[in-house]
Design brief:
By secondary structure, chain A is of the alpha/beta class. Chain A contains 16 helices and 15 strands. In chain A, 55% of the residues are buried. Chain B is built from 14 helices and 12 strands. In chain B, the strands form 2 sheets. In chain B, strands 1, 2, 3, 4, 5, 8, 9, 10, 11 and 12 form a 10-stranded mixed beta sheet that branches. Chain B has a two-stranded antiparallel sheet with strand order 6-7. The chains are: A alpha/beta, B alpha+beta. Chains A and B meet through helix 8, strand 11 and helix 9 of A and helix 1 of B.
């Protein structure tokens, strides 16, 4: 009974009845099957092409829809219309280098590039538009047209079907420290691969990092030999995060409260990591994490990445929320994270965060949009977003090559969301451009992308993993 | 044997599952599942998944016939490498500590570099044997060669044969339960009800404090939704304990209640031991080393000595061998089979008469500082799954000694059925 709606939507008959069907998404480190095509809008730029070269991807030229290139199509009722020349076969991805877009006329080229791809993309295909930060674009027209790209990408994401996604990447070109092809590569790699399956309609910013910090582009095991700490790793999304980092070579320290020890042990043993039972709200939690790392990995052992995934909910309408419900959620989801970061950021602390280390927080779309009955939770998760923005902009951390980012998961299929009442759950699953819930691994892959050494130029970002959910969009 | 110098066997850490009340959280868990869970928690704590350790030694006191290879089966079901050898050992309540001693010896001799020792017991899932009449009939039937012979054998079963032989917590040679035996000892030593209740209340309070402070964060792993010892009563008091009726002994002098006696429990506990080199190579902690151990037995059958008094004999022998006095310890872990066991043992060591006549000493061993006794709680509050007790005590004491610092000393004393006592000395590293 609990899965009646699911039955209705997955039954072959349902498809014939017109119930929207969820596409099986391409996941993992798989590139699109079809060709990656690249188009330029507004002028010549080699940024995206050079970046793809670093990834070993040879793009083909994109088709541009112009009146001259259209053909006349006649339907079975004898009506004729002009249609763009289609691609010879399905394409895997369309990349648009729109970094030179400065005028409204340039936007026409963007349209011309996008139109043939709308029906030409394979399932789980990709549209990636690369523009610049509007604020840095110069003249008001340039700012306006760069901002227009966001409207385009967000709408395209909603129009695409069959698991295809659209995202906008903004780079710095007109600032003192322009983004390089090397800086951009990890983000393009992530967006093209199946790892970004549930990321759509998003805007990411890629800045510039000290070239010495950007290493090993396209490495399938970017965390080989690195220590990664994951809190809340006993189950659900945390377990998937731990597993994903271990798959990519990390030595994982899996942290969870003692009460979750059984699941934590299972996760740690499955991935060959170590289990650290710890309530992150204890005052010395940061020190205990560092002590564990220093003990297990020697005095030189340091943390490459800490993922602050541990979190709790104590949902109630605000009218019924007392200080205990309020406080416990803020304590676990936000305050503990802040305290632990402060301790681990001490460069002198054995087992602390390494130079060029990574901090990744887990926010939530609730923290962006708010959610009825989740004021405390939304406060804590919005707090995480603020924390990440502040730390990402901190020059002292930038100097040390430390990046701070967060993900904001939308509807992810976990034990927790399985307990949501049927109708609400089904709405949560469907009310996004991919018309399905995400999987824990989708969140994990996004976190791993933000944490990988090659993502040194990505900091202060809050990336939604929500299938372009309408909630908080 | 060549005169090679023995190397140290060190305690790296331990893991147990919280202890359940008989018929409680682990009512449907088997010895094998509990031991496997304890192993997996230990493996996860030290990142040993897929690794082979020298050996795993464990055991259970109440053991089903199907569990003849219990420890090896638990290893096979765990995350340890399937090439890890294992064996079972049984010395009643001394089982867990005895396995620690055995594994330590092999490490000290260089036969193995690492090992896991401990035990498991389930009072809930205790084996029930069938009566002799039924058992013999079933054996005859299973060896029958023709259907008729089988029918004949089974037809021989009488209604009276169907009553099961329930497991008894009693000594086969005296027919007396352990509690009844101890009640005699308590009376003999004049152990008061008040003193017993005080010790019991302290055990609960100390254990509750230890859980609250996170002392067990790296010593225990939750199992089947139990994340603390089920028998723990943080809010108990001497006054509350005083209201309980005696359950062992008879008449006016009966002082032993369910409150100051250890309840039957379910659980498993393990200790990871190794050479210093093995631990250092893996960047694992070295908490303490096993200095020495001793086992004694007393003639309780004739009534010459109390069933649970053997540690009173084992400890002085150990002290003499090590050139130590009873006061040379930072911590004392004396297993509380009953509060009166601990008190009778302490009284014996303070008694000039006992130390002279029974131990052959010139002077009494003297008193111990009670503030150093079972400081993080013990069996009365935690519960006592027989074979699991040694692992619980050794791992906890090793951690305490490590925190106290190098050279600190701890004494472990565990009494066991059959009139035996297993004791050991640990030293902080």
């Amino acid at each position: 009974m609990a899965d009646l709606v699911q039955l209705l939507t997955t039954n072959p008959l349902a498809k014939q009845l017109g119930v929207p069907q969820a596409t099986r998404l391409r996941r993992g480190r798989e590139l699109p099957a079809g060709p990656v095509v690249l188009g330029l809008a507004g002028g010549t730029s080699s940024l995206v092409r050079s970046s793809l070269e670093l990834l070993g991807v040879q793009p083909e030229d994109a088709l541009v829809d112009t009146p001259e290139t259209r053909t006349t199509q006649t339907d079975d009722k004898g009506r004729t219309r002009e249609v763009p020349t289609p691609y010879p076969g399905k394409i895997g991805a369309l990349l648009v280098d729109a970094t030179q877009v400065t005028s409204v006329a340039d936007l026409e080229t963007v349209r011309g590039l996008l139109r043939p791809a709308m029906k030409g993309l394979e399932p789980s295909g990709r549209v990636v538009v690369v523009g610049v930060e509007p604020e840095t674009a110069g003249a008001p027209t340039a700012v306006a047209t760069q901002q227009a790209l966001e409207g385009i990408v967000r709408s395209v994401g909603k129009e695409l079907r069959a698991g295809a996604t659209a995202n906008l990447v903004r780079v710095d070109l007109l600032t003192e420290e322009p983004t390089t092809a090397t800086d951009l590569a990890s983000t393009l790699s992530f967006l093209l691969e199946g790892r970004s399956a549930y990321v759509s309609g998003q805007v990411l910013h890629v800045g510039h990092a000290d070239p010495a910090r950007v290493v090993e582009i396209g490495n399938a095991r970017p965390f080989e030999g690195q220590v990664v700490v994951v809190t809340g790793a006993g189950r659900g999304i945390g377990a998937a995060i731990a597993e994903t980092f271990a798959r990519d070579g990390a030595l994982v320290v899996a942290v969870d409260v003692p009460a979750a020890g059984e699941g934590l042990a299972r996760v740690a043993n499955r991935i060959g990591g170590t289990a650290l039972q710890l309530d992150i709200t204890t005052p010395d939690a940061g020190r205990r994490i560092a002590a564990h790392v220093a003990q297990r990995f020697g005095d030189a052992g340091r943390i490459h990445t800490i993922v602050h995934n541990a979190g709790i909910t104590r949902d109630k309408l605000l009218a019924n929320t007392d200080e205990e419900r309020w406080g416990s959620v803020l304590e676990v989801n936000l305050a503990a994270q802040i305290r632990i970061n402060e301790v681990l950021l001490d460069p002198a602390l054995p087992g602390g965060l390494d130079e060029a280390g990574r901090i990744v927080g887990v926010a939530s779309t609730s923290g962006i949009a708010g959610n009825r009955g989740q004021t405390n939770y939304a406060a804590s998760k919005a707090g995480v977003i603020g924390l990440v923005r502040a730390m990402g902009a901190d020059p002292r951390l930038a100097e040390r090559g430390i990046t701070v980012n967060a993900v904001a998961p939308g509807f992810i299929e976990t034990e927790m969301t399985a307990r949501i009442p049927l109708a609400t759950r089904e709405v949560g699953r469907r009310i996004n451009s991919l018309q399905q819930g995400g999987r824990p691994v989708d969140v994990a892959e996004t976190i791993a992308y933000l944490a990988e050494p090659a993502s040194a130029a990505v900091t202060g970002q809050v990336l939604r993993v929500c299938g372009q959910s309408q909630l908080g969009a | 044997m060549s005169d090679q110098t023995l190397r140290d066997a060190v305690i790296v850490g331990g893991n147990r599952i919280p202890f359940g009340k008989a018929g409680g959280a682990y009512a449907s868990a088997s010895n094998q599942s509990m031991l496997t869970a304890a192993l997996d928690g230990l493996v996860a704590r030290f990142g040993l998944a897929g690794e082979q350790v020298g050996e795993v030694a464990a055991g259970a006191v109440l053991k089903h016939s199907r569990d003849f290879n219990l420890t090896r089966e638990a290893v096979l079901g765990s995350a340890l490498a399937p090439t890890t050898p294992a064996y079972d050992l049984q010395q009643a309540c001394g089982t867990g500590l005895e396995t620690v001693i055995q594994v330590s010896h092999k490490i000290r001799l260089g036969q193995i570099d690492s090992g896991i020792a401990g035990g498991v017991d389930s009072a809930s899932d205790a084996p029930i044997a069938v009566g002799e009449g039924l058992r013999k009939a079933l054996l005859r039937a299973s060896s029958a060669k023709t259907p008729m012979q089988r029918v004949k054998a089974l037809a021989g079963i009488r209604p009276g044969d169907l009553a099961p032989e329930t497991p008894r917590n009693s000594e086969p040679r005296t027919g007396l339960s352990m509690g009844e035996h101890q009640a005699r000892t308590a009376r003999e030593w004049g152990i008061t009800r008040e003193a017993q209740d005080e010790l019991a209340a302290a055990s609960h309070h100390n254990l509750a404090r230890a859980w609250d402070s996170g002392f067990f964060d790296d010593l225990a792993t939750g199992f089947l939704k139990l994340s603390r010892d089920q028998g723990l009563r943080a809010d108990t008091s001497v006054e509350k304990l005083a209201t309980l009726k005696p359950v062992f002994g008879t008449g006016e002098g009966a002082t032993m209640t369910a409150g100051n006696s250890t309840p039957l429990s379910d659980g498993a506990a393990l200790v990871l031991l190794s050479s210093r080199e093995w631990a250092q190579e893996r960047s694992l902690p070295v908490l303490a080393r096993l200095v020495d151990a001793e086992v004694a037995a007393v003639d309780y059958v004739s009534g010459e000595e109390g069933l649970l008094m053997a540690p009173a004999y084992a400890v002085p022998r150990l002290l003499a061998r090590q050139g130590l006095t009873l006061q040379d310890f930072d911590y004392y872990e004396i297993h509380e089979a009953f509060a009166s066991t601990v008190l009778a043992t302490l009284a014996a060591w303070e008694s000039e008469e006992f130390c002279r006549d029974r131990l052959g000493l010139d002077a009494p061993l003297g008193a111990v500082d009670r503030d150093r006794l079972n400081v993080h709680g013990s069996s009365l509050a935690a519960g006592h799954p027989f074979a699991a007790t040694g692992g619980r005590i050794v791992a906890g004491l090793a951690k305490m000694l490590s925190q106290k610092g190098p050279g600190s000393r701890g004494l472990v004393s565990i009494c066991a059925a059959g009139g035996q006592g297993v004791v050991a000395i640990l030293e902080g590293c």
